[in-house]
Amino acid sequence: MQPATPVSPPSTNYDNNAVDKRKLWRVITASSVGTVIEWYDFYIFGSLAIILSEQFFPPGNPTAAFLSTLATFGAGFVARPFGAVVFGRLGDRIGRKYTFLLTLLLMGGSTFAIALIPGYAVIGTLAPALLVTLRIVQGLALGGEYGGAATYVAEHAPDNQRGRYTSYIQTTATVGLLVSIGVILGCQAWLGKTVFADWGWRLPFALSGILVVVSYFIRRNMDESPLFAELKQQGTLSKSPLRESFSDPKNLRLMLIAMFGAIVGQGALWHTAQFYSPIFVTKILNVEFVTANQLVAVALLLATPFYVIFGALSDRLGRKAVMMTGLLLAVIGYYPIYHGMDSVVAAGTLTSQSVQNVDGKKIETLQYDNGKVVTNTTTVAAGGQSTVKSEVQPATATKFWLIALIFIQVLFATMAYGPIAAFLVELFPTKIRYTSLSIPYHFANGVFGGCSPFVATWLASMTGSKFAGIYYPMGLAALTFVVGMVFLKETKGKKLRD
Amino acid sequence: MNSIKRLFGLLWIALGLYVGYDRIVDSVSKIGSENLENRIFGWVVLLVLTPLITGGLCLFGYYAFKGEYDER
Predict the structure, then answer these.
(1) Tell me, what CATH number does A425's domain have?
(2) What's the ipTM?
(3) Cβ within 8 Å, pair A257-B12
(4) CB contact, 8 Å: A65 with chain B?
(5) What are the average pLDDT values for consecutive 10-residue runs of chain A, which has 498 residues?
(6) Contact in structure between A32 and A169 (CB atoms under 8 Å)
(7) Number of independent structural domains in chain A
(8) pTM of the entire structure?
(9) Residue B72 contacts by C-beta under 8 Å, 6 or more apart in sequence?
(10) Is A14 a domain residue?
């Protein structure tokens, strides 16, 4: 049943194809800056997980281990899709602008609060309980943010350039990750590792409070989405977006096809390129941790503009063509890429070898003709068992190769991810768009995508094969490619008015 | 193309059932593990992820098999 408000022609008469470019850029900036901050907030928790566990969880306590695991997995798997349900509904009921203002404040408030919680040594078990609660709030807020930002930008953008303009939202997760790494490394360098581990880790969380206030004032002055305003004025808003999203078989079919025909593979590629590639380089190829992360950061930085390039290309070639090409190239290219990473790190001829004993540890240093240095540290435990830890400092040429090979992986991810906001927005009707877009996006990205680094690492350790881990994202990408090619319809240029 | 879509529908249902079976067997073994993290992970997979993945794939397959995605 429709609301009792009389239906009248919209007074806004908004024509998105004749949009003022300055206004459009203000919309994109306000949306993107807030979304970058939300991703920044989400990632600093993950990046500082070890320090947080030392500060907030007592060692050797099973309840603490439970809470720690819950904080890590719960926010991504459960809270994010649940946030999509809660805030998607709000976005379709009260408006895009107010909802993503709310998610911004929730995310910023919870992140800032983490900076203020006393540690376990001061308030005991209340400390981990508060931390987990705030982490869950972070996950909820993130689940509501993306759909709002993508919908808000898309509903302002011209039909023939929607891929280009929404792709700026697609860059935000990578930029947020890079900013979080930069802030953490900057604070560590400024304060020193000991002070940072003691209290300095609170600074990146506190910084979020300032960033959120700035972003809040930018967003607060923006207008509501014109298409939502029209529906509101006509009195044709959905009364129950969640029920309509699931009870209308046509919409449910679209949500399923969006998930299995686009988002599952995209999520797997994006998470593998950004999170599994550094795990592979550090844990499997034993490249020194800081060096490996620097190489990944450079590759991410170089690849980020391609979200926009492929988003814009999808306005010409079609969303489906660009996304499916990215998936197919990943299925074909992942094995040679990971094999290549292994080969370039292994390259070199041994020229000298030395052994030292330092503090009861045997340190073997191997020098190679290409400049590579491998350090094998053997530690003998009290029971007589010895463990060997290898660390590779790669040659300069190897570093360039690694950057190039990681860059190519991210490039495939940008092809699959760049056009997806425009595609999802075009797939669903305005009155339930926020809900219908957010649920499959966060479910598939949280569950299939977010799991990719864990499953890939687990596969590699279970099978003992260096390359077993990549079969999981390759399999998901292949499945999505087949579903997408057979079932997806092109949406490029579609008018967004219902 | 419509016949292919319907055949794929059966494939998605089969895949959903296989993934469901595989995940249930795996998570039951994890739930019985000594390691607390494995036990938690097992419960999350069994109660949250498996129903959603299996349900999603089977529903998608059912719609495809019924011809709901056919070109008309």
Answers:
(1) 1.20.1250.20
(2) 0.80
(3) no
(4) yes
(5) 41 71 91 91 82 79 62 70 93 92 92 93 88 90 92 94 96 93 90 91 94 88 90 91 91 94 95 90 90 91 97 97 98 97 95 89 93 91 81 95 97 97 96 94 86 81 87 94 94 86
(6) yes
(7) 3
(8) 0.88
(9) none
(10) no
